């Protein structure tokens, strides 16, 4: 009986073993399952990679950045110094000064350039293996007539936040930068119309009035819609800017208004804003800002 009892005990123990696996066996089975899952995913990724061709970017599809233009003054009386720079090895820069398009046959830049007349500068960067840069352009203007002693009145006054150095800002021969918050070079207005009256110290022979303005649509600053010049209540010149409401990048603009060639003691310049910011802009329906920094008589 003792022998049979011993056999019976072993049988029961075996039944319990197969009905309830040990913890170590459960862990082993879980690990096997995870390994199979990982191998399956890896197989899918491998098949996906094998079905796609690897493509490489060719050098001639890479475009150079625009050259940096440095000028000691965009407005000058005698001469200005012009420099170009691009921090890219084996890059060469070519330019024109007459407003024509830059090509590989244009003048090669080697050293700073002295400018002694109004020039429309265009510049591009070239490289043996890369695409040429986009054009970078700027206008450098010689001031032929000194009006710094003139009397200036502006109605209405500039906004208090963008007051510059007051009325004299428009005749101080100091050009504002593309960053209108830098310095006191700009007069800012949020008005439908600005009237600028200039009384010269002596009669001046003139055939053109130039208004220097800023366009920075991201800051709600738009070019004017119209600019007109009058003398003794007679209109002597006017322009309409048809692209004022068109989306454009930041720019410093010289708005040229041809006038009847004559000697003038006084002139009045009327600058009219767009009626409202266009629909494509986030500020649509509101009155845009006008920024002016200089009046030039030629």
Annotation field: number of helices: 2
Number of strands: 16
Question: Given this structure, which CATH class of the largest domain is correct?
Answer: Mainly Beta
Helix content: 10-25%
Distance between the termini: 132 Å
What is the element string, with H for helices and E for strands?
HHEEEEEEEEEEEEEEEE
Corresponding CATH architecture of the largest domain:
Sandwich
Which stretches of 5+ consecutive residues score pLDDT under 50?
1-26
Instruction: Determine the mean pLDDT.
Output: 85
The CATH topology of the largest domain? Jelly Rolls
The secondary-structure class comes to alpha+beta
Major beta-sheet overview: 7 strands, antiparallel
Shape: globular
Count of discrete domains:
3
Cα Rg: 37 Å
Note the beta-strand portion: 35-45%
Question: How would the blueprint of this fold be written?
Answer:
Layout: H1 2-19, H2 23-50, E1 68-71, E2 75-76, E3 80-85, E4 92-96, E5 107-108, E6 113-115, E7 119-126, E8 136-142, E9 151-155, E10 164-167, E11 187-189, E12 193-215, E13 226-231, E14 234-240, E15 251-272, E16 290-297
Parallel strand pairs: 2-8
Antiparallel strand pairs: 1-3, 3-6, 4-5, 4-7, 7-8, 9-12, 11-16, 12-15, 12-16, 13-14, 13-15
